[in-house]
């Protein structure tokens, strides 16, 4: 395929001369979403969706050169038609569609098929070359209905409150935390967010999305302020004196890894809620099927498993770094 | 079953007894009475016999999912066990949440190993469950279900739920019953004539003797060795022998060898006694008995730690409460009742120590350690039961030791929660104990500064530091230990203070500790 090259730095499109989610300094980077393993510092110029741009600028600094497109808007780069399409992973996350001389390639970045109520839902795209992530590519991974998980989180919060405990939910600051916040029942009690999360919340609110009211964790807050509260924080962010002030507390983790009994994410959490921003096994298979692609490129996760599985089902498959 | 699965998850994730208590009450509140019965049975660590092997379960999963073996094997690698693998792989089912715990147990108990439809029945059952429910069902199916709930916690929660006294629940729960043959009402709620006989009077333990010296009028006091933690109330009433711990736990199942003593007891008595680990004329270390109590009451565990029952008081005789009578009268009667020269092995009447002068009491107190005692018990001869009784412990011993390791608090990793200390063994330092650490903020900051400059290694939550800081520790006693590298265990060690002026050269050699040279 002339359209894509898989280089150590990232996925490269030679005719357009752009890298997708490069890991080291390049001149022109196309960014699927703002998570730090996809959007790195040091690129000369960044191209992303208009919805991702404010968080990207927040994370990378105000001096970066960014350009943005709306979902579906096409830009021509040396004859390559590039457009972003919703990936459903987090707010503003995109699949990158590249079209050149009748060949179409789609790079998913991270994605999920469920509508989480905040990010624009995943849009399946017909293509010949489909580059998919495989974070949860094992048939074990099957997500329970989100509504059940949100209800369980709110019940847990209420119950902790009755027992006089503060609830601490752990999730990544960009994406997962806003999704959790979005579905908390604000009537239960006060909601606090770690400053790194609250900064993103503010951006999301300014973009016109509604989130329940939350307050940043600030040094002047005292023990009584946390009575019956919910705190959202990245794992490991609350420590030392902060925890002394919040005591008694109980911790919960929100992740796809929470599905198994020995979770990789926040294994010490008291309670685990299965809430993932990635596609589960069924979702990955469905996405592959919907593209109708001839060639599937698997990356990032259980690549070997998904590779073997898709090959067994008659697909042409490559594992790419 | 869905609720029971939640309960199992909650119990597994509980941080303390309060969490467990709440989880149990939540479950019983909504469960029907049959489910409650089965939950009791399972929580007491009973389980149905294994109805399928791990291999069979994986075959059924393969049949259900149609996945190739390699993919099942990859999944099995990621999940923690076969029960979980099967629970998570059987997706596409439509949970109904209607099947109850007792229905699942009926199904499991009815499954015959030779039944050709076994897989069909299990597959059908799986379809009605969600993943959490399937997981616990699979553990029952595979015979890998275990309950780690303590009976004390169960009884306490059950008492709160039913309003019945804990002592009644103790012996009813641990008695011989099965959920198939009895019901909630009969087992727990029904009042029986025997209840009144089995009710414990309750022990009153002595208070700490606060004066520095012995009592001034020695003749007014009865003096005994103060040995251990395991006081029991032995009831022999209306043909029932019951053994209650000081905290109200029913210990009959733990000490079946003592139940045969009934033949040797005078009619209708309630006694206070001390249980002591004892073999071939020697006392065993007191924690051996604690270990025995923590294990299941099996013959092997019984034989590893035989006990001696040391009678110390008479609380009730021929149905009459003797607790208000003076100790001298209670004791005289106890002596006549047990004057029989052929008391069986394993039961002994406590002998008062010869303490006619203050000097003599003082001497006994000093020598307590040599008699495997922790100090003296002083009981006023004229006092009613529970009044004017004191324990006079040996003073704590002290020791200088150097800081070797710090352990982080799991829930708050920025805090060091425990410190490990060492003493010299020849030219090297060897760990001898670990103490909880709750310092003042200023001292903690100074310690943190030291740690950041002197860390040698980190492994998980533990940090090792250069041996330089010296702390003064207190401990109650020491005893040999095979499990520890140092070969000895300090009992109840704690930090007294950071000795900033001391250096590691002030820290003793371990052989000095063993000789008892240090620390008096």
Question: What is the CATH domain class of the largest domain in chain B?
Answer: Alpha Beta
Number of helices of chain A: 7
Helix content of chain B: 25-40%
Could you give a short account of the major beta sheet of chain B?
7 strands, mixed
* Percent in strands of chain B: 15-25%
What level of helicity do the residues of chain A show? 10-25%
Q: Low-confidence spans of chain A: pLDDT under 50, at least 5 residues?
A: none
CATH class of the largest domain in chain A: Alpha Beta
State the CATH topology of the largest domain in chain B: D-amino Acid Aminotransferase, Chain A, domain 1
Identify the CATH architecture of the largest domain in chain A. 4-Layer Sandwich
Counting H and I runs of at least 4 residues, what is the number of helices of chain B?
Answer: 20
CATH 2nd-level architecture of the largest domain in chain B: 2-Layer Sandwich
Distance between the first and last residues' Cα of chain B = 59 Å
Shape of chain A: globular
**What is the residue-mean pLDDT of chain B, rounded to a whole number?**
90
CATH topology of the largest domain in chain A: Metallo-beta-lactamase, Chain A
Proportion of residues in β-strands of chain A: 25-35%
